[in-house]
Design goal:
Length: 420
């Protein structure tokens, strides 16, 4: 009888927590974690802000798991290119897709393709040295005002990173290109634009309050935009909304001229067009009463959410932007977890709970049937000349990144695996 074999596609938090949960319940199983990139950790490495190193410390938990040899790391292997879903399903008793939501949701307004307009996935990928986005053409030299569209934590991350001084970014693992460009930029104002009001914003309070402690940028809020109280909100959100309102009130009472740069909150404005000839020159915004205004800007980052982008043989619901699933089950033997399952929401620990639940579902389904499977995937990949990045390759690369760090940075991120 073949031992239980599970493939987890995606080495981000959802995939790694799932692998961990599977092995805790069934230590004799073989779990392979496949990722198209040479580096593990998914959004922890490429999404979490480079100045939030405390959040990235969760990689130590993942290192302890992966250092055991099972799960096995198969990096640099792309589903749909190096191996098909059908081939995986023939070799594993279950396939769990933890492939996230890597594509930017488009805003769908004219001018979105102008140079100077970026989706947050691409922009965050640029400053986090994601191999897909590291070479993006981000020109900050002529930017005086940047507009950040969206009222979630990604919008806060983008505004904060753009506003920080080189000294504030020294201890981050910001990509080389971004460190140079942000350090040299003359950005004077960053405007965070929300289509709804302060109570509807998705900010968590720790992230919002951090904007009040920046060395060169002062937050700016129009007191007239702030309601008396938070009104009728779900009990679970009450404390957060109250804290956010108090923080925004404090921002409204502070002196925006106390620091050289401003981070200005503009609520109840929906973007209707990006304007410009060869490059972005402004954004047209519409208020709820229908009036429109143009805000000049040379950079715009849309932080309005993400979609999954699976290969053609993976079920995908274009309407919801995720893999169609019922509590994680996509088809018999095929599962989705994390953002691919529920959409781009929640924090890293949300994916731990998700991973445990999906692992339980996989194991419960396999109680019923565990048909024989074909041989090890390594043979198939080797036959195709697909170079697999092993965990040893990654740990060598990790050490090289740490050794190359300068000026207080924790690491200098590479864009490819370190040669042996
Ligand atoms: P988010 O919190 O869902 O925010 C998305 C924002 O985009 C919302 O304000 C939404 O407004 C707006 N939006 C959507 N469509 C729009 C449109 N057509 N025009 C204008 N605005 C539009 O998501 P996120 O900021 O991308 O973050 C994703 C997840 O990662 C969240 O759960 C977030 O908390 C988490 N995250 C956490 C941290 C952290 O803990 N430090 C950092 C980054 C991200 P509406 O509300 O009106 O739809």
């Amino acid at each position: 009888m073949t031992a239980l074999r599970v493939a987890v596609v995606g080495a981000g938090p959802a995939g790694l927590y799932t692998a961990d949960a599977l092995l805790r319940k069934r230590p004799e199983a073989q779990v392979d974690v496949i990722d198209r990139l040479f580096a593990p950790y998914g959004l922890v490495r490429y999404g979490v802000a480079p100045d939030h190193q405390g959040t990235k410390a969760v990689t130590r938990v993942f290192d302890r798991l992966m250092g055991k040899g099972n799960p096995r790391f198969l990096g640099g292997v792309t589903l749909g290119r190096d191996v098909s879903l059908a081939e995986l399903r023939a070799r594993y008793h279950a396939v769990v897709l933890a492939i996230g939501c890597p594509a930017d949701r488009p805003l769908g307004v004219p001018g979105e393709g102008l140079p100077g307009v970026h989706g947050s996935g691409a922009f965050v990928g640029w400053y986090n040295a994601h191999p897909d986005h590291a070479a993006a053409e981000v020109d900050l030299a002529r930017v005086r005002r940047a507009v950040v569209i969206g009222n979630g934590n990604v919008a806060i991350d983008v505004a904060r990173i753009l506003s920080k001084t080189p000294a504030e970014l020294a201890a981050s693992d910001l990509a080389d290109a971004a460190r140079g460009a942000i350090g040299a930029s003359g950005i004077g104002e960053i405007v965070i634009v929300g289509r709804r009001g302060p109570i509807e914003a998705g900010f968590t309070n720790a992230e919002l309050a951090e904007l009040g402690r920046l060395s060169a940028a002062a937050p700016m809020v129009d007191a007239a935009d702030l309601p008396e109280g938070i009104g009728d909100v779900a009990e679970a959100e009450r404390r957060m909304k109250e804290a956010n309102l108090a923080t925004l009130r404090a921002f409204a009472g502070a002196d925006p001229a106390s620091k050289p740069k401003r981070i200005r909150f503009l609520f109840h404005r929906a973007p209707v067009a990006f304007l410009g000839g060869d490059r972005l020159e402004g954004v047209r915004l519409r208020a709820p009463d229908g009036t429109e205004e143009t805000l000049s800007c040379e950079l715009a980052v849309t932080c309005i959410g993400y979609r999954a982008a699976p290969p053609a043989d993976v079920p995908f619901d274009a309407g919801t932007g995720i893999l169609p699933n019922s509590a994680g089950r996509v088809a018999p033997g095929l599962y989705a977890v994390g953002w691919a399952r529920r959409g781009p929401s929640g924090v890293i620990p949300t994916n731990r709970a998700d991973g445990i639940a999906v692992a339980d579902l996989v194991l419960a389904d396999l109680e019923a049937a565990m048909p024989p499977r074909e041989g090890d995937i390594i043979g198939l990949l080797a036959g195709r000349g697909a170079g697999v990045v092993t965990w040893d390759d990654w740990t060598r690369t990790d050490k090289a990144e740490i050794a190359a760090a300068e000026g207080g940075a924790p690491r200098r991120k590479r864009l490819s695996v370190c040669p042996a």
